[in-house]
């Protein structure tokens, strides 16, 4: 049984955040109909992990606003697959978003910090 994963990322500039994820992490923008509220939601769907949906939102209060851009510790917001980790590594290497790259015999892992301060792990097997 496949389960969907829904993540909301808080950002002061949701359009810029969406563009970062589309450009770097294999996401595409979709409008999804929410039957409970009879509205459309603008979400990002990952091209490989199609059960992963990311939505961007403005902060709802002062606490959320103050946490944007703060490093989230050692935990990842999420881990996503890619079919070309070398291209992502080359694109982000030397930027403020690049944290580290680990190559193992069974997979390669790239840790990125997004503009909102969230750590994201990209992997290729």
Question: What do you see in this structure?
Answer:
Strand 7 and strand 8 form a beta hairpin. The longest helix is centred in the N-terminal third of the chain and has 12 residues. The protein has three helices and eight strands. The relative contact order is 0.22. It has 125 residues and is α/β, with parallel strands linked by helices. It is globular. The strands form two sheets. It has a four-stranded mixed beta sheet. The mean pLDDT is 87. The protein has one domain: 2,3-Dihydroxybiphenyl 1,2-Dioxygenase, domain 1.
What is the fold's blueprint, element by element?
Layout: E1 5-10, H1 14-25, E2 27-34, E3 39-46, E4 52-57, H2 62-67, E5 78-81, H3 85-92, E6 98-103, E7 108-113, E8 119-124
Parallel strand pairs: 1-4, 5-8
Antiparallel strand pairs: 2-3, 3-4, 6-7, 7-8
pLDDT average, as an integer?
87
Order of strands across the biggest sheet?
1-4-3-2
Approximate helicity band: 10-25%
Q: Beta-sheet strand percentage?
A: 35-45%
What letter string, H or E per element, gives the SSE order? EHEEEHEHEEE
Main sheet: strands, sense, barrel = 4 strands, mixed
- Amino- and carboxy-terminal Cα gap: 23 Å
- Which architecture would the CATH scheme give at its second level? Roll
Count of individual beta strands = 8
Q: What number of structural domains do the residues give?
A: 1
Overall 3D shape: globular
Q: Report the total helices.
A: 3
Low-confidence stretches: none
**Alpha-beta content class:** alpha/beta
Q: State the CATH superfamily name.
A: 2,3-Dihydroxybiphenyl 1,2-Dioxygenase, domain 1
CATH fold call:
2,3-Dihydroxybiphenyl 1,2-Dioxygenase, domain 1
Output the CATH class name. Answer: Alpha Beta
